[in-house]
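Appendix B. Raw example, untouched.
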Amino acid sequence: MLLASGGMRRLLDAGKPLRIFVEYWPYGLSKSGGSGENFFRVISEAGFRILRIDSEAKSLITVKRVEDLAEVTRGSRYVNLFCERS
């Protein structure tokens, strides 16, 4: 996974409680040499609970597998995620 800086990797590896809002855009990740699957794996393995922000329904939807995001990110679409580790 491409990380903005080494600081991001240290933050993920620290294991402390953390909340992250992130735009999940598999198309953009693939264009920059990464992948949505790898991003999801790294965040999951770092102990984060991943929730999709559904702006229309004004709700959070638990995401257990990267495949759960496939339909909403088909083509070049993106989705916003809330990732939480307590």
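End of appendix B.
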